[in-house]
Amino acid sequence: MKDFNYWNALYRNEVLAEFSNDRTGLLWLKTKSIIRKQLIEAFTQQNGIFLKQSGLNQQFAELFGLLSEDIDQSHKQTPSCWQNGCMKIKEKCDLVLKIVCFLCLLIQKILIILGN
Asked: How many helices and strands (H and E) does the chain possess?
């Protein structure tokens, strides 16, 4: 089964081509891109998600698990984080967040190109 650990192993081993051919893999990458303390807090607050875990790695796995329950809906949720004001964190968007937004969009475009 292509669960969190499957995608994590592919990512760690730099086997990235499969991510471009799988909506779950793309969701894993999108989720990974927001695994920073401020970003994950803002994302979960914006989307009404409560995480039980406190460590970032555990929150990554938990959030991906929750989002992967409905892949189509999650793909609709996650892009707004990068397109609607770079996911305003407490009413401001700092430089780090802008860089993360840019990198996420860049990853999406690269994956689209690899998929063609």
From this structure: 6, 0
